[in-house]
């Protein structure tokens, strides 16, 4: 993965806070929060088969520049990723690494269910 090649557009989607909701929990539909650029590397299925982790999902690692907005990404968010050779649809955040201070990026593991 080349850190300088940010060929993918990532739209971070979060649940909207409904007015009058007790406790202030976000319970609405997913709405666009912000857009960022990212590099993406899809994990191949062969390594997952060797590890005994064959499942019906696509797994990828996103690398986004560390910023005030990108540091707020959590596993409760959904990402819409647009770019070359990528299946359409929303991706769920599986894991968010701590920001790398030296390289100024954050790696995010995302998954997308395939089929039913």
Automatic annotation (TrEMBL):
Record protein name field: Head-tail adaptor protein
Taxonomic superkingdom: Bacteria
Gene3D superfamilies (alphabetical): Bacteriophage SPP1 head-tail adaptor protein (2.40.10.270)
InterPro entries (UniProt xref): SSP1_head-tail_sf
Lineage of the species this protein comes from: Bacteria, Pseudomonadati, Pseudomonadota, Alphaproteobacteria, Hyphomicrobiales
